[in-house]
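#structure-requests
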Amino acid sequence: MGAAVTPRARPAARAASEAGTTLIETVIACAILLVLMAGLAGMTSMATTLTENEGHLSARTTEYAVDKMEQLLELTYGDAQSNTTVFPSVTSGGTGLAVGGSSDPAAAAVNYSDYLDQSGNPLCSVDVPCTTEPPADWYYMRAWQVSIPSANLKLITVTATIRSSVAGAMKAKATVAAYKTDCPNGC
């Protein structure tokens, strides 16, 4: 008897049985992935812009408006001479809570507005007071108005805004308002 004969696979059948991806399949998969990634890149850019403008900058403008409001509310009702354009306030050289000013940053009044740098540090000081011309390196601006809506009551309105936004989006702006009374024994 002879040796056992083992069947030999034909070359074409062996090639058909080997599973794998071809170069064409890989290129198509990479092209689909590239198209998807390009679409996500636009969303990433938009999300970053919204986060910076609506999250960070809006929160900072609100914080700085509230800080100015707290500084103004510390003054006495009849104070008309404290300089509140500097921090901390000094007892002379300003308008205190005298009626006047404008809470519109586009129409800010001298002695009723101040400026902060990008880190939130005041740019106005007793030595270098705020004027009608803003400092060159300002990033945040605060403007306030004091009015008397009724007897023994002052309305203080503070608006803070930024110089520029990210990607040309709408500029962040925050306005806060509070009343201060002059009723030592109740009204």
